[in-house]
Amino acid sequence: MTQLKLVGFSGSYGRPSKTSALVEYIADLACDRYNLTRSVFDLTDVGDTLGLAKSQNDLDADAAAVLKAVVESDLLVIGSPTYKGSYPGMFKHFIDLIDPEQLRGKPVLIAATGGGERHALMVEHQLRPLFGFFMAHTIPTAIYASNRDFSGHEIVSSALLERIGFAIDELAAFVSRKSGPIGD
Question: Where is the NADPH-dependent FMN reductase-like domain (predicted)?
């Protein structure tokens, strides 16, 4: 049986970034738990052609490869930094290049980071509706992490780690649906 592919995508240009660290952590945990293959990207991987692209055909080879990995994945972990209560424009532009049918029915674990608790509902008011438009299946437990949940770029909050665990548990229904029975 072919291994399912999990792709993580961080809407951050920063390296290192808390958003990318969060996406990487979630992706690693899910892949270890469910024996998935893993790829993780960020906006830096997409590169400079993103800003000029009006369609998928306008992307250079590197950017097109990232977009292809996202749409051909079996499961997605999407993370975004929060700016003024929403996701950054270039992150949205990348998502805008995806045809809605390309994400139809795809399980998506949504996550976001922000400076404080003030932005915590961004996952519910921005990311969940965005992926709802694509008719993707957003996992019920969304992840939000603020600066206080990290030490540098390492997750240190036990509450955040517990919430990530709940979300990873919820992926089981999608993994077993796509690949048959799963082990412990």
Answer: 5-147
